[in-house]
Design a protein that fits this description.
The complex is a heterodimer of chains A (605) and B (409).
Chain A lengths: L8 H28 L1 H9 L2 E7 L6 E2 L5 E13 L9 H8 L5 H8 L9 E7 L1 H10 L6 E10 L7 H4 L1 E4 L2 H6 L9 E4 L1 H5 L1 H4 L4 E7 L5 E4 L14 E4 L3 H10 L5 E6 L6 E7 L5 H4 L4 H9 L8 H4 L9 H10 L8 E4 L2 E4 L2 E4 L5 E4 H6 L3 H11 L1 H10 L21 H8 L7 H6 L10 H12 L3 E3 L4 E6 L4 E5 L3 E3 L4 H16 L15 E7 L7 E8 L6 E7 L5 H22 L12 E3 L4
Parallel strand pairs in A: 2-10, 19-24
Antiparallel strand pairs in A: 1-8, 2-3, 3-4, 3-5, 6-7, 8-9, 10-18, 11-12, 11-23, 13-16, 14-15, 17-20, 18-19, 21-22, 22-23
Helix pairs in contact in A: 10-22, 14-16, 14-17
Chain B lengths: L1 H9 L2 H22 L8 H21 L3 H28 L15 H17 L9 H20 L3 H17 L4 H19 L1 H18 L3 H24 L2 H11 L8 H13 L12 H4 L11 H34 L3 H26 L16 H19 L6
Helix pairs in contact in B: 2-3, 2-14, 3-16, 4-5, 4-6, 5-6, 5-7, 5-15, 5-16, 6-7, 7-15, 8-9, 8-10, 9-10, 12-14, 14-15, 15-16
């Protein structure tokens, strides 16, 4: 038999038999199921059904760089209402026992009105055991009300870190629809900060318990004795780059102040401390957030929800003088012999720009040490706007640092193109440029950018993208993955850095503007600044790094409406530096060193 | 009746009308399963729009000159592959370690486009001038055309669609007249690879079976050794690839091979599907009155489990009408494969038939519990724009082939 040819009859027959055969099998099976076994299936459908009960997975825990817990989990009870069987007459009783104001339950039910009536709504989280005991006693009189055990974020480990950690909330409808199939209604999802960026690591996987329920949805047993159940998988634990001790000091110092702190490891870009003050209470978000809390947070004049550390922008004042110094040295416009005579100010056209003192003959080193304005009015005029602007951008100003939290501003670095766009070709004068030399004017930077700037001085122009995630532990494989820093080099000569770094050393340890924070055992280098504030008292700024010879920490501190940088901002920076470096000496990181590093992970956003 | 005859002569109503019938059944079932759903209630309106667009595309495809499909083949295949790679690339950069990004921002499932591209490309290659289907090189290229998209789709991962591509490839090679030995060469590496995943013993047993088969075919030593080496390396190659992958990718392949590891609980869904269909009885519980459907015991019922809605609400009558409509379409396509004007048209018809039939068989089989749970949409009925669109393009092509069946060039 030779049928090895195109579309042979034998082959056609095989295909035909497959089609007819499968059709026959299906018809017989349908007849069997729908007619012969119909009563059995019907009974199953009417009386017993299998209902999956989803169990939420605990989110991954946040550890600090020394494996101390920053954010954990705790068990809690959540009270729920299923509208299809709920009796609205119960509302006053429930509100009374929960201690909620009248109208609270109605509002939550109205909020989720578009969902199916069969889906339970969470009405109160972290309910006390007293309430649960009351419920257990009266459950038969409370149709449509039930409770579930959940885990909830536990913030009781000594640091708040609200703006970097972010919070979790019930998934909004819009996100639910975008991430189709990945979440269920009522699931928690990360909002803001690290909780949002690393949501997919942190969330874990839900477990499923299959229960047999009757037509009234009442549980009557386990399905197949639980053999099809799936265990919950906890989310991946994150080890953050944060140093808990440094963070605690920062939070303590800012208890009664407004402002921000960002501290980085200059060689790796690891964020050691990150604070925006005032903070908000993350606990408020762990419960079902009441309208009162929202209103209070949104109307507070101090804007506690606003992440100042990476989103607020302001003119950096004198801390920006090093940009002009580096630009002048690199471009060969000045050298160490270049001197300016400061007679208390600088005449440019018909305008007079003031200096704070009469500094006499000033070279580049003294100009930073003593923070002489006249020197920089002169220098920036020699540099020209676009050269100055080029160097500001080299140090990362005007663009986002791409830190691994979603909240970040890019700031503004003016250039000819920028002024032309804003004011028109002839709408601005060279006078605009003069004030940029001392970090005033339309220059806008974030505290995070200033910390990155300090890190670049600390490490001679080499650093890595600022980031919070040091490593994560894959719960399923039990392997730890280290995050590889994304290094970069801004390409500026060591010679120029040596001159400017020396001057920054003298600011604290010579006759400079921040000698008040000089320490006997740690050599801090830095620069003070004052940001002019059109709306009130000026902001105090300090940027710096330590130890001078082998920098381990770079820092930017801004205190809003506090006046001069040296009196308020610099001591805070000093205390944080001390907390980080002195602990470094006495305490070896525990646990972490013993855990094997498996692979380096590249994480992009 | 004269006009009718002429119409039937140029336009096969016995394919078109059953397709329309199935689409209407699909719309009813989608409406029923989503009308009370908290988040999917807009799906019915969306599907109506998909149907209207796909009907328009159907008429365009139907009106094109038949020759154009041959010309499209290479380009369409290339574009499909490009999109399949792009999807993987996009999924990768967004989250380095755990990427479960599905389709990206295309709003179109590239694997659907690839079905069309692969059928056209394979038909084009297998019928180009004097192709010899039993020449090792020609088979090899045909296999490459068919298997390349399978590898890319496996990485997504989409088990059902990968299987469909394999079935199409084998079916077209089979129809082209491959010898029994050739078919063995084609199929054995796949079986050996599958065995290598199951463990070292299964791998060895599979290899021994290959050796036994080689003795049976009594080919010369060189050919036998070559085939054996192909089999051996297929097993090792897959193993090597598997080891190079990151843990989360390995996990994906594992869940791909073991559908019971499906996060939604495949066993649970299969049971609920049977209860829904079985409880429908002879007449069904009536439109919008199926308690399994309305209480949503089966997640996403409007996609892969749409047939249960029909089984539950329209009973044995409705279920039989649906599979009979499919049978009519399959038999008409089968008949067309004998009357189409050239080999390219024949293979395209066979490809479309295989595609629709494999979807039908795996989907209905899963719903009534005679095949394993493998997620695949039911053609013309399941919710989804991409599938509806491509299926109607395919129907457009085969009706085009029907229209041109008697013309000789």
């Amino acid at each position: 038999m030779n049928d090895n040819y195109f579309g042979s009859l034998f082959r056609r027959r095989i295909v035909f038999v497959i089609i007819i055969g499968f059709f026959a099998i299906c018809s017989v099976q349908l007849f069997n199921m729908q007619i012969l076994q119909q009563p059995t299936y019907s009974e199953k459908s009417d009386e017993n059904s299998v209902k999956p009960i989803y169990q939420l997975a605990p989110r991954g825990i946040f550890y600090d760089r020394n494996h101390k817990v920053l954010v954990g989990n705790k068990p809690s009870f959540t009270l729920r209402i299923t509208p299809s069987t709920y009796d609205k007459k119960l509302t006053p009783y429930l509100e009374a026992i929960l201690g909620m104001s009248p109208g609270y339950i109605d509002r939550i039910l109205k909020l989720n009105e578009s969902y199916s009536k069969f889906i339970p709504r969470k009405i109160a989280k972290d309910v006390s055991f007293k309430v649960i005991a009351w419920y257990e006693e009266n459950s038969s009189k409370l149709p449509g009300v039930d409770y579930v055990m959940e885990t909830q974020r536990d913030y009781s480990f000594g640091v708040t870190g609200a703006h970097m950690f972010g919070y979790t909330k019930e998934i909004p409808l819009e996100v639910f629809q975008r991430r189709k199939g990945e979440y269920d209604i009522g699931d928690e999802i990360g909002f803001g900060g690290i909780e949002k960026t690393y949501e997919d690591y942190l969330r874990g996987e839900k477990g499923i318990k299959y229960m047999l329920v009757d037509a009234k949805q009442k549980t009557i047993g386990r399905y197949k004795a639980g053999e099809e159940d799936q265990a919950t998988i906890k989310g991946d634990d994150l080890t953050l780059t944060i140093d808990k001790d440094a963070q605690e000091v920062a939070e303590e110092e800012f208890k009664d102040k407004r402002g921000a702190v960002v501290a980085l490891d200059p060689s790796t870009g690891e964020v050691l401390a990150f604070l925006s003050a005032p903070q908000y209470n993350l606990e408020d978000f762990a419960k079902v957030t009441s309208n009162e809390v929202w209103r209070e947070l949104n109307n507070n004049p101090d804007r506690p929800m606003f992440n100042r550390a990476s989103m607020s922008t302001f003119a950096p004042g004198s801390t920006f003088k090093m940009i002009s110094a580096i630009a002048g040295l690199e471009e060969g416009i000045i050298d160490t012999n270049f001197k300016v005579n400061c007679g208390g100010g600088y005449q440019f056209g018909d305008r007079y720009f003031k200096c704070l003192h009469v500094h006499g003959t000033v070279d580049v080193e003294t100009s930073i040490e003593k923070s002489c304005n006249t020197f920089y009015y002169t220098l920036v005029n020699k540099l020209g706007l676009d050269t100055w602007s080029k160097y500001a951008k080299k140090f990362g100003f005007g663009t986002k640092t791409k830190i691994d939290i979603p909240e970040e501003s890019s700031g503004i670095v003016p250039s000819t193109e920028y002024y032309n766009r804003v004011y028109g070709k002839n709408g601005w004068t060279k006078g605009f440029v003069i004030s940029l030399g001392i970090g005033q004017g339309e220059l806008n930077v974030t505290p995070l950018q200033l910390a990155q700037y300090a890190a670049l001085f600390a490490n001679y122009g080499k650093s890595a993208r600022p980031h919070f995630l040091k490593s994560y532990m894959d719960t399923q494989t039990n392997k730890r993955y280290d995050v590889k820093p994304q290094y970069y080099d801004i390409g500026i000569s060591r010679k120029s850095f040596d001159i400017v770094r020396r001057a920054m050393y003298l600011v604290v340890n010579g006759a400079g503007t921040a000698t008040n924070i000089k320490l006997p055992d740690i050599a801090i280098a830095g620069k003070t600044g004052t940001a002019q504030n059109p709306h009130g008292k000026d902001h105090a700024i300090f940027v710096g790094f330590a130890p001078y010879d082998n920098p381990k920490i770079a820092i930017a501190v801004i205190v809003e409406n506090a006046g001069f940088g040296s009196t308020v901002a610099a001591p805070i920076a000093r205390d944080i530096i001390k907390a980080y470096l002195q602990k470094d000496k006495k305490e070896e990181p525990k646990d972490l060193a013993a855990l094997p590093v498996v692979k380096e992970a590249n994480i992009e956003h | 009746m004269n006009i009718n005859y002429k119409l039937q002569d140029r336009f096969d109503l016995s394919i078109f009308l059953p397709v329309i019938g199935l689409i209407i059944f699909g719309l009813l079932a989608i409406y029923s399963s989503t009308v009370n759903h908290p988040t999917a209630s807009g799906n019915f309106q969306k599907q109506v729009i998909f149907v209207i667009i796909s009907l328009f595309v159907f008429f365009v495809t139907f009106s094109l000159p038949l020759q154009s499909f041959k010309k499209f083949a290479i380009a369409l295949y290339g574009i499909s592959i490009f999109f399949l790679i792009a999807v993987l690339a996009i999924g990768k950069t967004v989250y380095g370690a755990k990427s479960w990004f599905g389709i990206g921002g295309f709003g179109f499932q590239p694997s659907e486009l690839a079905k069309l591209g692969t059928i056209l490309m394979l038909s084009y290659w297998l019928t180009y001038k004097s192709r010899d289907i039993n020449n090792l090189k020609d088979i090899g290229v045909a296999l490459l055309i068919g298997v390349f998209p399978v590898v890319l789709i496996m990485l997504e991962p989409d088990m059902g669609t990968s299987i469909v591509f394999l079935v199409i490839t084998v079916s077209l090679i089979f129809w082209s007249g491959i010898s029994l030995f050739g078919l063995f060469v084609v199929l054995s590496p796949g079986i050996v690879t599958l065995a290598s995943i199951l463990g070292i013993y299964a791998f060895i047993v599979a290899l021994l079976l290959v050796v036994a088969a080689l003795f049976f075919f009594k080919k010369d030593l060189f050919n036998s050794i070559a085939v054996f080496i192909i089999n051996l390396s297929a097993g090792f190659f897959f193993d090597y690839i598997y080891r190079v992958l990151k843990p989360h990718q390995q996990k994906r392949i594992a869940s791909f091979l073991d559908p019971s590891a499906d996060p939604l609980g495949a066993g649970y869904n299969a049971l609920q599907a049977k209860v829904a269909i079985g409880s429908g009885g002879f007449w069904g519980k009536g439109f919008l009155h199926g308690n399994q459907t309305q209480l949503r015991f089966i997640p996403e019922q409007w996609t892969d489990f749409i047939y249960c809605v029909i089984g539950e609400e329209f009973g044995y009558i409705g279920s039989m009408i649906v599979i009979l409509l499919f049978l009519v379409i399959f038999l008409r396509l089968f008949k067309l494969s004998a009357t189409a004007k050239d080999r390219f048209s024949v293979l395209v018809t066979v490809g479309v038939l295989t595609l629709l039939f494999s979807h039908f068989a795996l989907n209905i089989g899963m719903n009534v519990g005679v095949t394993p749970v493998i997620g695949l949409p039911l053609p013309f009925l399941s919710y989804g724009g991409s599938t509806q669109f491509i299926n109607m393009v395919m129907i457009g092509i085969v009706l085009n082939i029907y229209r041109n069946r008697k013309l000789h060039t």
